[in-house]
Amino acid sequence: MTKISNAEMERIAREEVPAVGQYGVRFDEIGDGTARAVLPYQEDFLRPGGTVSGPVMMGLADVVVYACVLSRIGIVKLAVTTSLNANFLRRPKPADLIAEGRLLKCGKRLAYGEVTLFSAGEEDDPVCHVTATYSIPPEEQR
């Protein structure tokens, strides 16, 4: 059973992760340890050469892993990223970004997940693969 709704996660993204939330990230689905989000395309995302910038993709992936973690442990705002690794697989087209994430492990102190990003309309050909670790604070610090 998921411990956070799509609407709650969108609010958290806007208020607590404004670098991504301000761009209108939309969560389509949050399950137990999974999340799917869409980041509507904006021309501000482009870097020279007409490609969506890496920081935009990494920010989206990070907030999707955060949603995966919160879906499992509930709203714990002090859960934070401790590492994030992005592998850019191909140049994304100027389109909405779709991110599908899942937890691979969620313990008492650490959670580890992955996110695959796609350009809208090309969900069979990923543009980026991200892995991330989150630190979960002990119960008494939540």
From TrEMBL:
Keyword match Hydrolase = yes
Q: Name one GO molecular function term.
A: acyl-CoA hydrolase activity
Q: Does the keyword 4Fe-4S apply?
A: no
| SUPFAM superfamilies registered for this protein in UniProt | Thioesterase/thiol ester dehydrase-isomerase
The Thioesterase domain covers which part of the protein?
49-122
Keywords associated with the record: Hydrolase
The UniProt entry, under NCBIfam families, shows: unchar_dom_1
- Listed name of the protein: PaaI family thioesterase
